[in-house]
Structure formats: C-alpha cells, structure tokens
Amino acid sequence: MKGVVFTEFLEFVEQSFDVDMVEDIITDANLPHGGAYTAVGSYPHSEMSLLCGALAVRSGNSVSSLIQEFGHHLSTFFHETFPEYFTQVKDFGDFLESVDQRIHVEVRKLYPDAELPEIEVLERTPEHLRLVYRSSRHLSDLAIGLIEQAATYFGTRATVTVEGDPGPEDNEIYLLVSTS
Fold first, then answer.
1. What pLDDT is attached to residue 127?
2. Domain 81-178 - what CATH class?
C-alpha cells in the first residue's frame, strides 16, 4: 500500500482527534515500521489494519465508520492535490467512470508497483449508479467514503450502500450509489 495513504491516515487521526491519539495508536499497533511512513514508500496493508484497529479501540468507534470517515478525508486530499481529475469531467458519473480509465492509469505511471483497486460502473441512470469494487485488501468502506465525498464536489448528494451480503473474503463488492 502506498505511503501516502498512511501519511494521510495519520493526518486524519490528528485532525479528528489529536496528536496524542496518533502517538497512542502507533504504540498500540506495534508496527514493524514504527509508524515512520513516507508518502512515496510502500508498506504492508496489514499495518493499516493494525492502525485502524488500534484507533477503533481507543476511540470507541467501529473500524467501518472510521475507515469511511477516512475515505472522506482522503477524497478531500485528492481533490486539493489533483483538482484536474475533478474539473476535467462534466459530472459525478463521469468522474466515477474515469477512476479506472484515467486516474488509475496516471497513478500507475507514477507508481508502477501500486496495487490499486478496480471500480467498474455497471449501470448508470439519473437516479443511481451500480458499481463493482474489486480489491484483495477489502477496503470497501474506504471506497464508500471516497465516493460519498467526491459526489459533493459535483453538487451531488450520494448515498452508497453495499448490495447483498459479501463475506469477509470477497474480493468483489457491489455498490449502489443513489444520487436522488
């Protein structure tokens, strides 16, 4: 997992709680890297799981809700850092369709070793989009937060729900994004 996700997660924790919480969860997680991450480095996904688990214990919030909130934060970071990805499309639906076709292509140019999830738009109507999220990392809650926040940049209110009852080992999650 790219280091920028880790550095932004720690920034999210500091903004949402405080710097002491950052230090506490790093200590609690007993991380192989000691919590020293660089934005351009690559780190095991398991370390993110350890950090999220430690934050859930310390904050009393569920891992799922924390990861969704982090998705909102990360979407804001992407919007501020890469505004062209948001301004070069005409609407929210086009943006979602551009994630794999354009954004992830550019990410792979910068980070050829990046293991990115896939987001495929299966159906698009004025009221909703049906997506499939594919990832071996099982971070659909992060994708939900990213999608919900990204919608706001297009003046769209989006509610994202998981379709069906995916198991913990499912690499494909179907999402319904209601936009009305």
1. 95
2. alpha beta
